[in-house]
Amino acid sequence: MSFGTLPNALVVVAVVVAVLARRLSWSELENSDTDVWRGPLVLIGVGVYQLYDRHAGLGVVDVVLLAVGTAVALVAGVGSGRVAQVERRAGKVFFRLGMPGLGIMVAYLVVRLGLAGLGHLLGATVAGGGALLVSLGANLLTQSLIIQSKANQMAEEYTNQ
To answer: In 3-state terms, what secondary structure has residue 87?
Structure first.
């Protein structure tokens, strides 16, 4: 790891820790698109910027690793979103991942970091920080969409009673 990649690694670790801390505690889900899209799209945007800023051309290995990393992120996002706990309290909706969601997120991160290591071994130029941020953003976006869908179903059931 060069000195230039150390700050990227620290940013990725800080983002992962902050996201996991927030997702494990009960958080209010505001029923707005901004709450669902803002954070994940910022992560994806920063990741794409880092990829674009540092790499002029992508090789076959780069594209395959990006595709596999995104697919793993989407599957893990659906899984963790489906097991997330959603509760209605005083007319507001709250959510958290809980232990099953934490297990899925940890497994996802282990697989994703394994892909990054494999990418470095294969000589991929996009195996690090930018690709990880895009993958994490895709995971959180999928997870948030599933959680919001569960919250909307809960609200419909609540109003139809």
So the answer is: strand
> Tokens standing for 68?
């596999």
Q: For residue 52, what pLDDT is reported?
A: 77
The count of other CB atoms within 10 Å of the CB of residue 69 is 24
Q: Give the number of other Cβ atoms within 10 Å of residue 115's Cβ.
A: 21
**What pTM, to 2 d.p., does this model score?**
0.82
CB under 8 Å to 59, separation ≥6 — which residues? 124, 125
What is the signed CA dihedral for 127, 71, 15, 38, rounded to 10 degrees? 130
CA distance 123 to 41: 28
Residue 151 neighbours by CB under 8 Å, 6+ apart: 29, 31, 86, 93, 95
